[in-house]
Design brief:
single chain; 4 helices; five-stranded parallel β-sheet; mainly beta
Length: about 350
């Protein structure tokens, strides 16, 4: 459906501004299209850094491609407040140009950002600067909508920073924004932040297949106004992020707390040996590092606390019966699953 809508738009747009000639030959209409039609941007590909405000910034030799010139007449930062429909997004920020604020963000949406069915998204934020506390990939705010559903691949990564004030976030939603994610392969590294308690923020995320994973936590999930629903299917896995950031502690959620989890053959991992192996074997695309290079001081994964658990799946946990002896309170050698 998303692709059909876009095709209709392109056809209308071509008649309005891109058709150069039309004439009749043998009773049939022959349209000669302006070559500019071939350059209509259904793909955004760029790699660069951020400015002092923490937003993507181009340079003379590496300018930002402008996906919406009409919405950004000053062309200062086309990815701030940007929307649109694309077939592919490949966007990477990995440096800061001079000084920078404590938070960076790759893509902020106030209207609607959509990737067509069977398309792909790769947004990576690994900015490393002494000022940076946390990085972010996508943010929906002020009723903004991000629709990354039914895609071939979704890859969202936010790592690095001190992460003392807040986790680095793969998804942030505020101001009654909405984010939906699903696809053949969904790989997300970073937390989900919905701690704007004065809005009705929504995140719906479905991960399918053994190559799909989410390595992160939810911040602010304790608000009754906000909704985060995660579904793990057919071997897709979740490892929560034990960051210890202030955002995780102050605003609820964080760590292994999650309000809504549906398992359809999905896997929740608390086993420390498995987590170590996963982190060491998970490369961060665009770098020469693995996830283990960024999460060296992570705390112990001792318990998950899930409010609404549906379906059937697998929990891989550490369990030491000899030491624990059936105790129902926390011990340092065994993990717990709390369903509230």
């Amino acid at each position: 459906m998303k692709q059909t809508k876009n095709a209709i738009y392109m056809l209308i747009h071509s008649y309005s501004s891109l058709l150069t000639k039309a004439f009749i030959w043998g009773g049939a209409s022959l349209l000669i299209i302006n070559p500019a039609f071939a350059d209509v941007k259904d793909t955004i590909e760029w790699s660069g850094g951020v400015d002092s405000a923490g937003n993507p910034a181009g340079t003379k030799d590496n300018p930002l491609p402008d996906p919406e010139p009409d919405r950004n007449p000053d062309k200062k930062n086309p990815y701030y407040y940007t929307s649109g429909t694309y077939n592919k997004i490949d966007f990477n920020i990995d440096r800061a140009y001079g000084g920078v604020r404590d938070t960076t963000e790759a893509w902020i949406v106030h209207d609607k950002l959509t990737v067509n069915d069977n398309g792909s998204v790769k947004i990576v934020n690994t900015v490393d600067h002494s000022n940076v506390d946390n990085n972010g990939t996508i943010r929906a705010m002020s009723n903004g909508i991000i629709d990354f559903t039914d895609l071939e691949q979704v890859y969202l990564v936010a790592v690095d920073g001190k992460e003392s004030r807040n986790d680095s976030t793969a998804i942030t939603v505020e101001g009654a924004g909405k984010v939906e994610v699903s696809g053949k392969t969904v790989q997300i590294i970073g937390s989900i932040d919905v701690k704007d308690a004065n809005s009705e923020s929504t995140v719906n995320m479905t991960l399918s297949g053994k190559d799909s994973f989410w390595y992160g936590s939810v911040i602010g999930d304790s608000s009754t106004k906000n909704s985060v629903d995660v579904t793990l299917k057919d071997g897709a896995s979740w490892i929560f992020y034990k960051s210890g950031s202030l955002g995780s502690s102050w605003f609820g959620g964080g760590g292994g707390r999650l309000s809504n989890l549906t398992l359809d053959g999905g896997v929740v991992i608390l086993d420390e040996d498995i987590i170590k192996s996963r982190y060491e074997s998970t490369p961060i695309v665009g770098t020469d590092k693995t996830l283990s290079d960024y999460r060296t001081d992570e705390g112990k994964h001792s318990a998950v606390n899930i409010t609404n658990l549906k379906g059937a799946g697998i929990f891989k946990i550490d369990l030491d019966w000899v030491t624990n002896q059936g105790k129902t309170s926390y011990t340092s050698n065994s993990d717990f699953i709390n369903i509230t």
